[in-house]
Amino acid sequence: MAPTAREETERLFDRLLAENGSALSRLAASYTNSAADRDDLVQEIALAIWRALPHFRGECSERTFTFRIAHNRAVTYLTRRRAPEAEAVAAIEVADKTPNPEAGLVRIQEGAQLRRAVHSLPLLYRQVVTLMLEGMEYDEMAQVLGISESNVGARLSRARQMLRELMEVPQ
Amino acid sequence: MKPDLELEVWREQWQADTEVPADLRRKVERGSRNLRLLLALEVLITVVLGGGSTLLATMDRRTEMVVLSAAVWLFLGAAWTFAMMNRRGTWSPVVVSTAEFLDLSIRRCQGRLASSGFGAGLYFVEMAFCLTWLYWDPARREPLPAIIFGVATPIFVVGLVRYRRKTQTELERLLQLQRHPA
Predict the structure, then answer these.
(1) Which terminus of chain B has a lower count of CB atoms within 10 Å, N or C?
(2) CA pair distance A130, B13, nearest whole angstrom
């Protein structure tokens, strides 16, 4: 029996989340200040993807489609929650992957400064940088953000310069 | 084509696991909760002491009552100024990462040590003021306040020393963890 359109959408949705879940979580983290907010944003993104999937006609790659929605949701989220940038950490429940603070610290610590620097970039630059760090090419970034490739290049060049400067500042 | 090494390193760092170890996360959450509770307690103390002394000064318009009320507000002002400056940047982590949570725990420990030092100083200044204010007037020369301070002060000092020692140990452990993470 052939799968119904809904079943196909469900399958595609599961696959998109499985393939891009970590990247979406990282993207959401760069727009939020706590794990709880990050999880909320990831959930909003997932919901938006689910709603948009029936209208996806393959005019771009699935990854581009996913990230375009993710970025739109993230920007909406930012405009909605602009004020509480420095909110206190709310109660967070996350699976205990490492039993003590020492485990896995080296690997994570290396990226901490980079994440902090990305987090403090202005929105325009943060958008291109997060996509660049996920391994996207110029044309994909241009499609996700709805700007020209030359514009992507210009923003990226400035963003990388800013990142370098931010990472040189002792934090 | 020449490989972009900087970008490759950044990508590797970016895509590394961002999950913060659970007990460090719990510690930071507990610290955030405690800070909020402490703030609520401070507001309550300000309302009770500040409001109470102002009320007394308004009802009993003698100079000594006005002096008492002014001193209470001065002490409260000093405590609030110190607390606000000392807690700056310790309310929440900027980003969700282990290093940031560790940094925040260290800053909070250092803040607790600084506030215990300030608290001790303020306690002795307040005690000196209270005893002077009480015994200035021969009519108020009763032994009870001196006895209360005589009992409370050693308890306060012992508690403070133990608290500082515990916090210092915690700070050293966190600093050690930061220097030698694995």
Answers:
(1) N
(2) 12
Inter-chain residue contact A101 with B23, CB threshold 8 Å: yes
**What topology does CATH give the domain A95-171?**
Arc Repressor Mutant, subunit A (1.10.10)
Minimal CA–CA distance to B80: which of B51, B48, B117, B39? B39
Residues of B in contact with A35 (CB under 8 A): 20, 25, 96
What length is written for chain B?
Answer: 182
* ipTM of the complex in this document: 0.71
Structural domain A1-91, CATH architecture = Orthogonal Bundle (1.10)
Residues of chain A with CATH 1.10.10.10: 95-171
Query: In A28-46, which positions are buried (b, 16+ CB within 10 angstroms) versus exposed (e)?
Result: bbbbbbbbbbbbbbbebbb
Q: Hey, which residues 70-109 in chain A have their CB within 8 Å of chain B? A: 86-89, 91-92, 94, 96-109
* Positions of CATH 1.10.1740.10 in chain A: 1-91
Interface test with A, best of B34, B94, B95, B174 (most A CBs within 10 A): B95
Predicted TM-score (pTM) above 0.95: no
Residue B181 phi, psi (nearest 5)? -65, -30
Count Cβ–Cβ pairs < 8 Å, chain A vs chain B.
132
Say yes or no: A133 contacts chain B, CB-CB below 8 A: yes
